[in-house]
Amino acid sequence: MVASRGDKPERVNYDKGFVGKVLDVGVDRYKHDPKKELSSFIVLEGKNGQRHEVWGVGIAETFKDSGAKIGDTIELRREGVDRVLKNVRTVDPQTGKEVVEPREVHRNRWEITAAKLREAPASELARDKDLVGAQSQLKVIESIVQQIEDPQKRRQFMDLAREAMAQKIEQGKTFPTATVAEPVKEKAAEIAQKAQERPEPERTR
C-alpha cells in the first residue's frame, strides 16, 4: 500500500521503480492508525521534493538487507505480489462478536537497491568519497571508450560500467581515485576493443 504526502500526490508506478532519498523507515500500526495491525513503512523524498510513504510487510527488513542508510538515495521497486494466508479479524453480523478467520490476501514483494552513482547529482558526487572514487574510475574508462567509433556502443558500454560500479558500491566496495596509470585503463582499452570488433546483430525482416 502506498500513501503520499503533499498538496497533490504524484502517481508512481512502483513496478518500474521509484528513486528517492530515504527520510524514515520503521514499524507502526498501518498508516499510523492505532486500530490497524502492525506493518512496516519507508518514507522517500522524490526529485520534486514530494514525500511518499510506502507501506508493506517486510519493507523495513528489505531496507536493512539492502545495506542502505537513512539519507541515502535508493530505488524502490515492487517485484511482484504473493498470495499468503493471513488471520483477519472480522465482526460476525449475527452475534456482533469479533472472530478471527484465515483468508488469502495479496502481499507486495519489494526490492530496494542503493541508487548511488546511477542517480546521484553532481553536488553529491563531489561530497561522497565513495562516489568521487567511482566517478574518477568512470572518467578514465570514458576516455578509453572514446576509441569506439559507434556512439550507441559507447553509450551502452558506459551504462554497463556505471551499473557494475553501482552494484559494487551497494555491496560495500570502495573505489580509490583513479589515474590513467592504473590497471583500469588497460582493462577498459581491452573491453573497448572487443566492443569495437563485436558484429552488429542481424535484423529480421
Protein model, in words:
The structure is a single chain. Helix content is 32%, strand content 32%. Helix 3 (129-145) runs antiparallel to helix 4. The radius of gyration is 23 Å and the shape is elongated. It folds into 2 domains: 2-114, no CATH class; 122-197, no CATH class. The chain is an alpha+beta fold. It has 5 helices and 6 strands; from the N terminus they run ββββαββαααα.
Summarize it:
This protein is of the alpha+beta class.
Mean pLDDT: 75
Number of helices: 5
Helix percent band: 25-40%
Strand content: 25-35%
Order of SSEs: EEEEHEEHHHH
Distance between the termini: 45 Å
Task: Kindly provide the radius of gyration, computed on alpha-carbon positions and rounded to a whole number of angstroms.
Answer: 23 Å
Low-pLDDT sequence parts: none
Shape designation: elongated
Biggest sheet details: 6 strands, antiparallel
The number of distinct β-strands equals 6
Q: Report the structural category.
A: alpha+beta
Domains (count): 2
Strand numbers in spatial order across the main sheet: 1-4-3-2-5-6
Give the helices and strands, then pairings.
Blueprint: E1 2-5, E2 18-29, E3 38-45, E4 51-55, H1 59-66, E5 73-91, E6 98-114, H2 122-127, H3 129-145, H4 151-170, H5 183-197
Antiparallel strand pairs: 1-4, 2-3, 2-5, 3-4, 5-6
Helix pairs in contact: 3-4, 3-5
